[in-house]
Amino acid sequence: MKLLKFASITKKMALAAAGLFLLVFLPVHAGLNLCILRSDGGYWYRVACHFMGTNWIVKVFEVILFATIALHVVIAVILTIENRFARPVRYATPHKTKTHWGSKYMIWTGGLVCCFLILHFINFYFVKMDWVEGKYTANVEKVATHFQNKMVEMQSGKMNEEESSAFMAQFEAVQALAETNMTTNGKDFVNMNREQIYQHFGTDFEDYEPDFYTMANELFKNKIYVTIYLIVFIVMGFHLFHAINSICQTMGFNHKKYNRFIELFALGYAVVIPLMFAVVPLYVMFIK
């Protein structure tokens, strides 16, 4: 509980720094999502997801990102509690303050976004961590290499008759799978559950990964999920608008000469980023 002993200004600076880091991350995530809009059968999006899931630098960044989110949430809750205890009784009459108009709602808008993040993690990140099952994709070349290695084993007599029969059944099943679950460019098998992976490639095949493109498209065809998604990003817009103003104030960037610029930048960011996220589910639901 050492965090509770830090001075209020220290916690505010830490909250601002964490918020600034998240502000930099959001355009990256939004840009990745926009790859779904391409008419390439999900090729760009799957390549981007594969890179994000296998590059060690990104994996380190991922840990930092989750730590930053946790830090941001914890400090925000602590500061809110401290402020309530510092003034348990509200003023009898309103008083003028330079605090931005949206500050008193930040804990609520942030709380709603946090709840959505949990849902988002369950639908996507938990699949990546193999905590819940989703849809999967496998590179055709890796599958071919796997079957070539198995063929060598069979021809060298390392398989018994039962294993050889099972392998040949898998090989024939893959031919049928190519007609229904292969991308148009012939590079990947997609939209498979784990049972299909084991049935067609064998339980010893491990070179598969979550098919985030298929999962995203399925979710964005769900009207309830899309409604929640859009509401959350409208709320996030308000949260971001105040957050940028608050970060600048906490870090001493506010000044009468460029406060207007900060307000305009905050407004632009708070509108553009949620729109970048919102356009994807709207496109999938009504156009795709």
Can you characterise this structure?
It is built from ten helices and three strands, in the order H-H-H-H-E-H-H-E-H-E-H-H-H. It has 288 residues and is mainly alpha-helical. The chain has two domains: 2-88 and 99-133 and 216-286, Fumarate reductase/succinate dehydrogenase, transmembrane subunit (3 helical TM bundles of succinate and fumarate reductases, Up-down Bundle); 136-210, no CATH class. The protein has a three-stranded antiparallel sheet. Helix 1 (8-34) packs across helix 9 and helix 4 (106-128) crosses helix 9. The mean pLDDT is 88.
Features of the shown structure:
single chain, 288 residues, mainly alpha, 3 helical TM bundles of succinate and fumarate reductases, 2 domains, 3-stranded antiparallel beta sheet, 70% helix
Which segments are poorly predicted (pLDDT under 50) over 5 or more consecutive residues? none
What's the gyration radius in Å? 25 Å
Write down the CATH topology of the largest domain: 3 helical TM bundles of succinate and fumarate reductases
Q: Structural class, judged by helices and strands?
A: mainly alpha
Number of domains: 2
* Percent strand: under 5%
Count of β-strands: 3
Biggest beta sheet summary: 3 strands, antiparallel
Report the CATH C-level class of the largest domain: Mainly Alpha
Q: Which sequence of SSEs, written as H and E, runs from N to C?
A: HHHHEHHEHEHHH
Distance between the amino and carboxyl termini = 50 Å
CATH homologous superfamily of the largest domain - what is it?
Fumarate reductase/succinate dehydrogenase, transmembrane subunit
| Order of adjacent strands in the largest pleated sheet | 2-1-3
Q: Tell me, what's the shape?
A: elongated
Helix content: 55-70%
What CATH architecture of the largest domain do you see?
A: Up-down Bundle
Total number of helical segments?
10
- Mean pLDDT, rounded to whole units? 88
